[in-house]
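Lest this sound abstract, we think one record worth quoting, the chain in one-letter code, the fold tokenised, each line plainly labelled:

>
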Amino acid sequence: MADQPNLVRPVGLVGDLRTRIRAGEWVGRQKLPSERQLQQLLGASRPAIREALKMIEAEGLIEIRAKRGAYVRQAPALRHFAPPDAAAADVLEVRALLEPRAAYLATRYATGPWLTRIRAFLEYAGEPKLALAAAGEFHVLCAQAGGNIFLAQLIAYLADLTRRDSEAYSSPDLHQMAQEQHWLIYEHILAGDADAAYSASYLHVTGVAARYGEQRRRRP
């Protein structure tokens, strides 16, 4: 496994860095800690830190400047977009409006390298222990592949809100269902069928919302 692309290990780091930026820990135009400092802060390897920084740069949250480090590109205004305690059902309802569009755009505009990156993500995000960290990242990648960075940021933010209810969202059954449906969406994207990718993504997120509700109701 050592020679495989290092795409999944940074997933949890991406969510952590994104949350810190949106919470205002690092504000617009401020320089982020060095890679060495982030290693100590987040307990991750330098290659994983570097890959995670590249991923959030692709979302438009930071700018990496050669020999100068990473800087927050814009003020994290999205933290005011919805309250931290927003109802998960409401968040998933909004995600059902956005994520199918991301799949549609990926089908229309994704280049070969982006398709390869999405496939690599799916191949290495299948482990249940990665369920929570990976939640939403597939759809963020689709939006990025489709060329809409703002859509990617919105989806990432909403996924972060959903992810806070970790006990329900990291259910193995829910994770397995989501993974199978992500593969189906990807196959439609690869085949160039934008309408099928859109429909599969809509059925996916509404199905996840239904199963998510079931998991919550089963709690003691």
Summary: The first helix runs from residue 11 to 22.
